[in-house]
Design brief:
Layout (H helix, E strand, L loop, with lengths): L1 H54 L3 H9 L4 H29 L12 H13 L3 H9 L3 H8 L1 H16 L3 H23 L14 H5 L3 H30 L1 H14 L1 H19 L4 H35 L7 H26 L3 H52 L1 E8 L2 E8 L1
Antiparallel strand pairs: 1-2
Helix pairs in contact: 1-3, 1-4, 1-6, 1-7, 1-8, 1-10, 1-11, 1-12, 2-3, 2-5, 3-4, 3-5, 4-8, 5-8, 6-8, 7-8, 10-11, 10-15, 11-14, 12-13, 12-14, 13-14, 14-15
Protein name: Polysaccharide biosynthesis family protein
Membrane topology: Multi-pass membrane protein
Keywords: Cell membrane, Membrane, Transmembrane, Transmembrane helix
Length: 425
Amino acid sequence: MRRIFKNMGWLLSGRGFNAVLSLAYLALATRTLGLDGFGYFAIIVALGQTVTGLVNFQTWQFVVRWGAGTDGPARAAGFAVGLDLLSAFVGAIFSAILVYTAQLWLPLPDELLWVAFGYCIVSLLAIRSTPTGLLRLRFEYGRATAAEAVQPLIRAIGAGLAVLFMPSVTGFILAWAAAEVCVAAALWYAALQKDKLDLGEVSLTAIPNAHPGAWRFVLSTNALGSLQIAAKQVMILAVGAIGGEAFAGGFRIASQLGQALVQLAQTISKAIYPELVHAQERAAEIARRMANVALLGGAIAVLVALLFGREALVLIAGQGFRGVYWAMVILAIGGAVELVGASLESLLVSAGRAGTAFIVRAVPMALAFALLETAMGWQELKGAALCLLGASALAVIGFWVAILGQQGIRIEVDGDDERETRAAK
C-alpha cells in the first residue's frame, strides 16, 4: 500500500500540474474561439482521440503483465511495438473514412476537414502506451510524470502562440498536435534510459506462442479501452451530431471540468494495476482499501463542484458557458462513481478477466447511446450527462457483482491433511 500511494503521489502531482495548465489553455481557447469555434475545435480533438482510442491497444498493460514474468521486458515491449504499428496502419484507414464521411453527420466546415485528418494522423503517430508500460514495469512513476508534464506545457505555450499569431481553430489544433508529438518523444526518451528497445524482438507471434490466451487478453483490454474512449470522446461527437457545434463545445467544457474525477480514477487504476499483477494473493484486499479511499475523495469532489462549479465555469470559459453548470455537476457525480469503481475494474483485469470487465462496461454504455437522443430532447446537455452517469453507475455495480461471483470455495489436499480455503478462482 505504501508503494501504491507513492506511485499515486507521482501520478497525482502530474495530474495537478496538468490541471493548472489546462485551466489556462482552456480559458485561452474558449475565449478566443467563442462557443461555435470551440465546438469545432472540440469535434476535431474528439475525432483524433476517438480514432486513437478505438484502434490503440492498451500495450502498457501487456508490458507490465508479461515483462514482469519470464518473457522479460524486451520481448514484451517487442510485442507491444508490433501492436502499435498495427494500430497506426489501421487507424490511418479509419481516419480517412471517418473524416471523409464527417459532413454527413457532424457540423464540420469543408476547410477544417484536412485539419481534422492531419490531427488524427499525428495522434496515431504519437501513440505512447508502450514506453509508459516500460516505466510502470520498473515503477519509475517519477520519471514518467516528468515526461508527461511536457504535454500540458506545450499545449499552454502553443495556445498562447495561437492567440497571438493564429487565433483560429487551426492554430489551436496545431498547438495540440505539437503537444502530442513532444510528449511521445519525452516518454520514449525516459523509457529507453532504463530499457533498450531491441527491434529484433518486434513480433506479433512470440508472446502469443508462449501464452495461448494472449490474444484474448489483448482484444479484451483493447475493447475495454475503446469503451472508456466512447464514454467521453464518442459522446462528444454524438452530442455534436444531435445538437450542433455549440452543444459539442458546451459538453466538452462540462466534461473536462466535471469529469476530472474520471481522470483521477484512471490514475488510481494505473497505479494499482502493476501492484495487483505482482501481488495476486492480496489483490482483493488492496482493491477494497483503495475503493474506500476513493469513496471519500469522490464525495468531497462532488461537494466542491456543487459549491464552486458555476463560478469556475464563468471564470474560465466566460458567460457563454454558464448554462452547462448542471451538466458539469452531473458529470462530477459520474466521475465520483468511476473513482470508486477504478480499483474494482483493475482487480478484474489483473485477474485475467478483462473480457468480463468489457461486458460489464459495454452493456450500460450501449444503453446510454441508445437513450442519448431522447435524453437530449428532454434535458439537452443535462440529459446527455445523465446518460453517462447511469452508464457509470451500472458498470460499477456490475464490477462489484462480478468480483463477488468469482469468490468460491477451493478444497486443497496435501497428503493426509485436507484443508478448506477461500480463494479467488
